[in-house]
């Protein structure tokens, strides 16, 4: 039986059907801006109807960029999508699709569970999961289950303050990486580099680092050190030395492992450091859909 995953993001909603191997078929997407032309919830329901009704879906997982109540009957805080906060969106889904069971989760929790179920390189039943992309998300899989904390959600590593009033998410995210890169480019007077300040993007940084561009590698060293400080806190708080990284910046992990290890060597004792490992667990561009679909299992 196919599993429907609905990945609600800040700029788009994506859906897809996942088979038992986590392979996605029949993908669809719609821009949030288009759904805001009129009543948002009504537009979402109208867009979902042919997708759900066509395939005879009986269950659907939905990942949202915010907090979900433990009973999954209320979306508490969705900062970039306030239209679905409260119980109105959930009730509209239940009313329009009475034969479908909906499962809701924070998007980082969903991504972690999808990685646990479908990433072939993940063998552990307990690990920490960090998403790096537009923001920083975090989750814990504990003995094969999503750790949801006292109120149904789990850790928010990105909200921890690393330097004064600056959060981990401000420093270790797409914008954080680009801001760091721009500062390094502006200060650079001696190092040869292919990087250009104008129209700089993360793909340019990644490709330059692949070609051993000295400045690009330095930028990832600095970025990795900041990431390592957040990772150290994550490990110390939750006693979970196995970490997997997903999200759009996860391929960049290859350039950050050394500075991460250097930071951890200073901040962790042997108890956590000896079993420590950090690896990529990317499910590609469909990670959000796969994670949402996994909630149905």
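-> sequence recovered:
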């Amino acid at each position: 039986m196919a599993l429907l995953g609905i990945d609600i993001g800040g700029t788009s909603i994506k859906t897809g059907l996942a088979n038992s191997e986590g392979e996605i078929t029949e993908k669809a997407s719609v821009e949030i801006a288009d759904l805001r032309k009129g009543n948002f919830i009504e537009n979402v329901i109208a867009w979902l109807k042919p997708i759900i009704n066509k395939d005879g879906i009986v269950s659907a997982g939905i990942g949202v960029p915010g907090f979900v109540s433990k009973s999954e009957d209320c979306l508490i805080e969705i900062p970039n999508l306030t239209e679905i906060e409260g119980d109105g969106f959930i009730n509209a889904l239940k009313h329009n699709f009475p034969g479908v069971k909906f499962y809701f989760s924070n998007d980082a929790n969903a991504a972690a569970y999808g990685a646990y179920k479908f990433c072939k390189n993940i063998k552990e039943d307990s690990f920490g999961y960090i998403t790096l992309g537009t923001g920083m998300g975090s989750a814990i899989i504990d003995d094969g289950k999503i750790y949801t904390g006292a109120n149904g959600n789990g850790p928010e590593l990105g909200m921890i303050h690393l330097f004064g009033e600056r959060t981990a998410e401000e420093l270790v995210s797409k914008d954080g990486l680009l801001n760091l890169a721009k500062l390094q480019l502006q200060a650079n007077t001696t190092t040869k580099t292919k990087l250009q300040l104008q129209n700089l993007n993360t793909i340019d940084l990644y490709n330059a680092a692949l070609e051993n561009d000295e400045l690009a590698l330095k930028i990832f060293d600095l970025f990795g050190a900041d990431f390592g400080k957040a990772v150290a806190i994550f490990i110390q708080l939750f006693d979970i030395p196995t970490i997997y990284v997903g999200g759009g910046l996860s391929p960049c992990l290859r350039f950050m492992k050394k500075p991460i290890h250097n930071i951890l060597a200073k901040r962790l004792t042997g108890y956590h450091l000896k079993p420590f490992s950090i690896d990529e667990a990317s499910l590609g561009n469909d990670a959000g859909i796969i994670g949402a679909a996994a909630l149905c299992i």
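The mean pLDDT is 94.
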